[in-house]
Amino acid sequence: MTLDTPLKELPGIGPAKEKALEKLGLQTAADLLSYFPRDYEDRHLYPNIAALPLGVPVCFQAMVAEPFRTSYIRRGMVLTKGRVVDDSGQIELTFFNLPYAGKGLYTGQTFTFYGVVTGEGQRRMMTHPEFHRPGEEEEEIRPVYPLTAGVSGRLMVKLQKQAAACIEQVRETLDEALRKEHSLLSAQEAYRGIHFPSSWENLEEARHRLRFEELFCLSLGLTLLREKREEQEAVPFSKQDLRPFFDALPFALTQAQLRCVQDAAEDLKKTVPMNRLLQGDVGSGKTVVAAACAVLAYENNCQAALMAPTELLAQQHFRTLTELLSGTDLRLGLLTGSLPAAQKRACQQALEAGEIDLVIGTHALLSGPVSFQRLGLVITDEQHRFGVNQRSALAAKSTGHPHVLVMSATPIPRTLALMIYGDLDLSVIDQLPPGRKPVETYLVGQDKRARLYQFIRKQIGLGRQAYLVCPAVSEEDPEGLKAAEQYGAELQERIFPDLRVGIVHGKQKPRDKQAVMEAFAKGEVDLLVATTVIEVGVDVPNASLMVVEDADRFGLSQLHQLRGRVGRGDHQSYCVLVSGNRNPQTRQRLKALCASTDGFAIAEEDLKLRGPGDFFGARQHGLPQLKLASLAGDLRLLHQAQAAAAAVLKEDPGLSKPEHEALHHRLAELFRESGDIFN
Ligand code: ADP
Ligand code: MG
C-alpha cells in the first residue's frame, strides 16, 4: 500500500462505504493519515470496582453475576438490567430500548466495560456501557474520530491501522535542525503518535509537532502570497484631493475615520496594489471611508466596484453612497441579479463604456459578461461571506491588478484577521460617530413574555419600530425553537392584531424579502419578525428595539451584530435577549453581552469560548484550514513558527533547494485555492 492507494482497494470497502468515506473527505490512505481524532478516551483499567470514580468515563473489568433481564416499563420503553461484580463490589448495568444489549454477556464470564458510574455504594450503576472481551481492543488511549453515517468508530480505527503501513512514506517537511531547535518529533513519529499514542506524553508531543507544522506552513504561505502581491502592479492614484468630498458631507469624519482614509490613501498612491482590511464595529461608519476611496479612484480615471453579500445590502449601499457622493461628479450604478434583464444590460454597457464610476452590486458583478473599461479599485463588504476565489474573480476583470479594500464589521483579533484574510494590512475604526447612545441590553427568561410584549407595544407607541429575531425559519426546524414564520403569524393574529407585523427569512423569494424590508425601512411595518437575514448592515435609524428569541442559540459576535441594527438614530435603543437556558456558562456568556458594547472585547470572549473554527461558521476563505492549532490559544507557538518561516525564506526564498522539496510540495497543495504561490 502507498499513500495514494484509493480506500476502495482496501478489504471490506465497497461502493457504499467508499461513498460514506468520501463524505468525510477521505479517498486515499494519505487522506486517512491526515484525518485526526477529535478526542481521545482514557481506557486505562481501574484496579477494581471500588476504585472507580463517579461521573467520568472509566474502564474496568468485572464478572457478570446474573443473566440480564428485560422488562417493559412503559409503553414503548424496554429496560434491560444485570449485575457485574468483583472482589471489591458490584455495579448494576442498564440499557434502555436495547433488548439485545445483554445478549453476549454470559453469567460467570469476565468482560471489559467502559462508561460513567453514577450512584453510591451498593446502588452504583452504569447506563449503556460499552463492553468487549478482555484481550480485545486493549489500547489505553482510544482515539475518537469524527464520523458519519456508514462509518463507525470501529471501522475508522481499523482503516487507520491499515493506513499505518504507509506512515513510513510520509515526507518530512521540517528539517532536522529545525526539529532539534524546537524539540519536535519527526513526521513519522507524529503521525504514529496522533493515531496510536503510546502514552499521553507521546500524544501531546505528536500534537505539538503537527500544530507547529500547520502554523509554520501557514506563515510561509502567507509570506509568499504577500511577496507575490508586491510584484503586482496597480494604477497609482497619485491625484488626491478629498477636500470637496469632505466639504460636501453632512457630517465631519471622526478621527478614526480620518486615520483609515489616510491609511488607504497612502496605499493607493503606490504601484503595489492596496490590500487593506477596514475593520469597524457596526455603526462606526465604514461606508464613508469606502466612498473616499472611490473618489480617489475617480480622480485618477479609474472605476471602482463595491461588492455586497446580499441584494438588500447592495441596494442599501447604493442609496447611502448616492447620498454621500451627491456633492461629487461620480456616476453610480447598481447591478444585482434580480434586476430586469434590460436594466442589467444597460448597466453592463455603461460599465464597459466607462460611463459608471462606481458600481455597487452582488456576485452578479462576477458572473456573466460584466467587463469594465478601467477597473482600479475593488471594495468588498463583509468579506468573510465571500471566498477568496470570488475576490480574485472580480480582480481578474480589472486592468492590471486592482487595489482592494475589504470591509468587515466583525471585530477580529489581529492574529485571526491575518489568518482569515491572509496578507491584508489592517485599519481599524475604533470610535463611533459622536452622539450615539449605547444600546441598553437585557437578558430575560421565558416567564417575562407578557412584559416583553408590553415593552414592544410601548416602543411602537412612541413611533419607533422593532425587530424580533428567531433562530429558525419554520417549525419543521427541530427542537421547538421560535420559528419566524409561525411565530410572526401568531404575534400578528393574537398579540398585536392592531400593529403591522412583517416577516422575513432566508427561504423567501428575494423579491418578497425585499418588499418587506423596504416597507420596514419606510416605516410601513412596525414589528419585523425575522431570522438572521437581517444580521448584516441593514440600516433603519427609526428602529429602537431588537428582541432576540432563544438568544442562547447565537454566538456572542452574532448577537452583537444583531444589536448593531438598533441605536443608529437619535433615540435611546434597547436589545432584549430572551432565553430560558439555565446553564450557568450560557447565562454568563449572555450577561457579558449585556455588560459590554465593545465589539472587540466581545469577539475575544467569543473566541475564547468557541474557538476560531466556529467563529465564522462555515468559512470558505480559501486559506488552508487549521486542524489542530488554534490561533487564540497557540500564540507563542505561532510566533515561533513565524520566526522559523522567516528564517527558512531568508535562506531559500523560492523554497527551491532540494531539502525543501517536500515543504514546497506541501505548500503548493495547501494553498491551491489561493492561487499558485510559487510563481
Ligand atoms: P457601518 O460601519 O456599520 O457600515 P455606516 O457606514 O453604515 O456604518 O454608518 C452608520 C451611520 O453613521 C450612517 O447613518 C452614517 O451616515 C453615519 N455616520 C458615519 N460617519 C459619521 C460621522 N463621522 N458623524 C456622524 N454620522 C456618521
Ligand atoms: Mg455597513
List the defining traits of the structure above:
alpha/beta, seven-stranded parallel β-sheet, 37% helix, globular
How much helicity do the residues have?
A: 25-40%
The largest pleated sheet is described as:
7 strands, parallel
Q: Kindly state the number of beta strands.
A: 22
Low-confidence stretches: 612-621
Query: In percent, how much strand structure appears in the residues?
Result: 15-25%
- The overall average pLDDT, rounded, is 86
- Bound ligand species: adenosine-5'-diphosphate, magnesium ion
Order of strands across the widest beta sheet? 12-13-11-14-15-10-16
The tally of helices reads 21
Distance between the termini: 34 Å
Shape annotation = globular
Structural class: alpha/beta
CA gyration radius, whole angstroms: 30 Å
How is the topology of this model organized?
Elements: H1 15-23, H2 29-33, E1 39-42, E2 57-64, E3 69-74, E4 77-86, E5 89-96, E6 110-118, E7 125-127, E8 130-132, E9 141-144, H3 153-163, H4 176-181, H5 187-195, H6 200-230, H7 243-248, H8 255-268, E10 275-280, H9 286-299, E11 303-307, H10 311-324, E12 332-335, H11 341-352, E13 358-361, E14 375-381, H12 388-395, E15 403-408, H13 414-421, E16 425-429, E17 440-444, H14 449-461, E18 465-469, H15 484-495, E19 501-504, H16 510-521, E20 527-530, E21 543-548, H17 556-563, E22 574-578, H18 584-595, H19 599-615, H20 635-651, H21 661-670
Parallel strand pairs: 5-7, 10-15, 10-16, 11-13, 11-14, 12-13, 14-15, 17-22, 18-20, 18-21, 19-20, 21-22
Antiparallel strand pairs: 1-9, 2-4, 2-6, 3-4, 4-5, 6-7, 6-8
Helix pairs in contact: 5-6, 6-20, 6-21, 8-9
Bound molecules: adenosine-5'-diphosphate and magnesium ion (MG).
